[in-house]
Design brief:
The structure holds 2 protein chains of 2 kinds. Chain A is α/β, with parallel strands linked by helices. Chain A has 19 helices and 19 strands. Chain A has 2 domains: 243 residues, P-loop containing nucleotide triphosphate hydrolases (Rossmann fold, 3-Layer(aba) Sandwich); 220 residues, 3-Layer(aba) Sandwich (Rossmann fold), CATH 3.40.50. The N terminus of chain B is likely disordered. The chains are: A alpha/beta, B mainly alpha. The interface between A and B is large, with 62 and 52 residues.
């Protein structure tokens, strides 16, 4: 018998006209790993919140949901709390208490367990997740990845049979995201806890999943084993919004028109070798348009530290940005990327070195949390705020950023992509033409990234210059005019994306990892596919 | 146990919270109860020694920057404004200055200073988690509220800084006073919106983990070990001796109209000895611990 059975449910939010879920059915078996995917706003969160009775939003529901044979409405509330664990998107806001050990114990305290029992369970959790070294830390001092791991551990401490995770890695950098997803995989494999996860990073979750369900506009349009589901999706057409979200192996093989679709880089490498034999493509020739040579923003040998006794965070960092250029700044955690941005935009001051900005240029930084820029109750209000009440300018900006349909929405109700666009719109209305972006693609699905990229490219054509700090290697490879790598407080290399990534074996895109030797110089799945097509003709 | 802060309370920090609480209750309570020059001096000396060992000389000196002026104010102020007492010394501004008023001023100044110093030590030892443990089982929801507040404050600070940075980015640095006021209002409103949004998610996270399902227990990491038991026994018995002595009338000085104290016999001496033991117990234990650490090669 299935652990959870969702049977043809319709759900309409209180006060809404259209239903958010239409005839959705899904089964989760004991110990199964289920991935729920789909573009943002398609109803994923609404669906998974139906399974967690405490968090089900107000509205009208038809159809039945059973948990372990019991209708979810009549499930004992204590049992529901303990057996169905739930982890949300934002690592920070889920934490309730001030110490790590206390946070681990929170749910168990609510259950009224004795201190002895809690002590043992908390110790087990700390050992399972390797938290010993930060067990006694304050929660605010943790990194985002640690916070989310703590939230996961806090849910697991209740000994659940089902863990529900709602885009748990949206606010994490790729390394922390990988660690978290690894931990989820271990919980599933080693403890047999069933997992229901919504996630954009398919390349890591797809190989681990037993079942994939795909949603579109409130409906589950496809479900089954990962390979089958992916094949169905790819058949349904390349222009499809969901196809953008597929991982590089899938996209390359789908573009080649193959039936079998590998899910991992390894399988894709082997698959290509099998198809192509010893054939090798000519190195890709790039005719990158040269950007005008005069930089409008330049900084030479910046040195910076946060306090006199601390270590240097910037150690002679150089950077220059030209008009019409989109530059991506890559690098690991703690390399000093965000610090460099804060120095460039004047929030911090370098103790050595100078930042030079051309006359007539205005530099603005988009903060990592774009909501810090929002002061009004509606999207139109936000834009009017930045245009000093000039409604025509505000409306024109909304038109340009494809926000026109959302004038009356509250800024907090926007999706990740819309939030980014609105924030950028506000800065543009303040006549910013040099933009610094801190992790603009964080938490965006593939389609929203594409939209953002197109918008940024459009701005560059009109003469803006953009410097984006990102962990997103694929984004940088596909859209940047120039990439720079930051390490240990300095820029260690920079160049056009093909020359920048082409030579790397590890720090590069999946497409390059798959086909770096067969199709030299290719860094996007599109390039790899077209080179391979040529070879096959 | 602040993250990254220098931990100085070696011996007391690791004792069970109930023992720490009992000790501070005894030290502060007895200081308040015994209005006697010897007691006040002993308490001030013991508390200061404890403070130096716990918090370091620099921090203690900082406390004294506040304590010393207050001491002088009371010690000088009392004889100037209070003219009770039988032993008239001299006239000042047509008012008699009496020996009793001078003595009383000195003793109260000493007592009050001692209590401030003891509370400074208390703050170092009784961190929020210890306090919450002690009162968590009495009022679990209040304890949770305090815990959540302690968690919320650093987050609020960070959000406020981020918002200020974003505001500067959008509107530039405010110049005039009206602009500054406007900026503050805008920041506050953004902070409020963001915090309310965060609170919704926090509430979800709490409900998801069964908040309100049963009477909460309060988890802690403390153990009542043999060392704690021994110190507890010592504190309680010494405090009992002092209390008995105080009830009998020792350890108290009448100032008006004439200075009088019942402490010239053996009982009085025993009582003061027990009192001194309480006051110096903290300093001695910390000193002993420091010596043990040195002998184990644990140097700072």
């Amino acid at each position: 018998m299935a652990l959870v059975r969702i049977d043809g449910i319709n759900f309409t939010y209180a006060g809404a006209k259209r239903p958010a879920l239409i005839n959705a059915s899904l089964e989760i078996n004991e110990g199964e790993y289920v991935l729920l995917t789909g573009a943002s706003g398609c109803g994923k969160t609404t669906l998974i919140r139906q399974i967690k009775p405490e968090l089900t939003p107000a509205g009208a529901r038809e159809g039945s949901i059973t948990y372990d044979g019991v209708a979810i409405e009549s499930l004992n509330t204590k049992r529901a709390a303990a057996e169905i664990g739930f982890v949300q998107q934002n690592p920070d806001n889920q934490i309730v208490t001030d110490y790590v050990w206390h946070e681990l114990a929170f749910g168990l305290e609510c259950m009224g367990l004795s201190v002895g029992v809690i002590r043992r369970r908390v110790a087990e959790m700390a050992a399972f997740f390797g938290m010993e070294s930060w067990f006694r830390s304050k929660t605010y001092a943790l990194s985002g990845g640690q916070k989310q791991l703590l939230n996961l551990a806090g849910a697991l401490a209740m000994d659940p049979r089902l863990l529900i995770l709602d885009e748990p890695t949206a606010m994490l950098d790729p390394l922390a995201a990988r660690e978290l997803l690894d931990a989820v995989g271990r919980i599933n494999r080693e403890l047999g806890v069933a997992v229901l996860i919504t996630e954009h990073r398919l390349e890591q979750v797809l190989p681990a999943a037993d079942k994939v369900a795909v949603m579109e506009r409130g409906r589950i349009i496809s479900q089954g084993r990962p390979e089958e589901t992916v094949r169905n999706l790819c058949r349904s057409g390349e222009g499809d919004r969901l196809f953008f979200g597929m991982s590089a192996p899938v996209r390359i093989f789908a573009a080649l028109g193959r039936e079998e679709l590998p899910l991992t880089v390894r399988d894709a490498r082997l698959g290509l070798k099998r198809i192509l034999g010893d054939k090798k493509a000519q190195p890709l020739s790039i005719d990158a348009p040269k950007i005008s040579a005069e930089p409008i923003l330049s900084a030479k040998e910046l040195w910076f530290r946060y306090d006199a006794k601390g270590a240097d965070v910037l150690r002679g960092a150089d950077i220059s940005l030209c008009e019409g250029e989109l530059m991506c700044l890559l690098g690991g955690n703690g390399a000093g990327k965000s610090t460099l941005l804060s120095v460039l935009c004047g929030l911090n001051k370098a103790y050595r070195g100078k930042v030079k900005l051309d006359n007539g240029k205005k530099l603005c930084m988009l903060p990592q949390n774009a909501r810090t820029l929002f002061t009004a109750d509606t999207v139109l209000g936000e834009l009017m705020d930045a245009s000093d009440g000039d409604e025509a300018r505000a409306r024109a900006m909304a038109e340009r950023l494809e926000l026109s349909g959302l004038f009356d929405s509250h800024p907090y109700d926007l999706s990740g992509g819309e939030t980014q666009r609105l924030a950028i719109g506000k800065l543009l209305l303040r006549d910013a033409n040099v933009l610094l972006l801190d992790e603009p693609t964080k938490g965006l699905d593939a389609y929203a990234k594409l939209q953002l990229a197109n918008m940024l490219k459009g701005l560059c054509k009109e003469g803006a210059a953009i410097l984006a700090v990102t962990h997103d290697v694929d984004f940088a490879a596909q859209y940047a005019d120039e990439c720079a790598m930051m390490f240990d407080g300095g820029i260690i290399s920079r160049g056009e994306p093909h020359e920048f990534f082409g030579g790397n074996r590890f720090y590069t895109t999946d497409a390059n990892r798959i086909a770096g030797d067969i199709a030299p110089g290719c860094i996007t799945s599109g390039e790899v596919a077209s080179q391979c097509k040529k070879l096959l003709q | 146990m602040e993250h990254g802060a220098k931990v100085r309370a070696r011996y007391f920090a690791a004792l069970h919270p109930s023992v720490c609480m009992a000790y501070f209750a005894a030290a502060i309570g007895l200081t308040l109860a015994c209005s006697h020059p010897a007691a006040a001096a002993l308490s001030l000396a013991g508390g200061t020694a404890f403070s130096i060992l716990l918090r370091g000389g620099k921090e203690t000196a900082n406390t004294y920057k506040f304590v010393l002026p207050m001491f002088l104010l009371i010690a000088i102020g009392n004889p100037l404004f209070n003219h009770r007492g039988a032993t008239m010394l001299f006239m000042l501004f047509d008012q008699w200055i009496t020996l009793e008023a001078i003595s009383y001023g000195l003793v109260s100044a000493c007592t009050l200073s001692a209590i401030i110093v003891w509370f400074a030590c208390y703050q170092q030892v009784m961190t929020s988690d210890k306090f919450l443990y002690l009162f968590g089982n009495v009022a679990p929801n209040t304890a949770l509220l305090i815990t959540m507040t302690l968690r919320f404050i650093p987050k609020l600070k960070k959000d406020a800084a981020d918002i200020a940075a974003a505001e500067t980015m959008l509107n530039g640095k405010p110049q005039r006073l009206t602009q500054k006021l406007g900026a503050v209002m805008r920041r506050l409103s953004v902070l409020l919106t963001m915090s309310m949004e965060a609170a919704v998610e926090t509430a979800d996270s709490m409900r998801a983990r069964g908040y309100g399902e049963a009477r909460r227990t309060t988890f802690h990491l403390f153990r009542f070990d043999t060392r704690s038991a021994a110190i507890m026994a010592a504190v309680l018995s010494l405090a009992a001796v002092c209390t008995a002595g105080r009830i009998y009338g020792y350890g108290y000085m009448e100032f008006y109209p004439r200075i009088y104290a019942l402490d010239t016999d053996a009982g009085g001496a025993a009582m003061l000895a027990a009192f001194a033991a309480v006051m110096f117990m903290g300093a001695i234990l910390e000193m002993k611990e420091a010596a043990v650490w040195r002998s184990c090669g644990l140097t700072e």
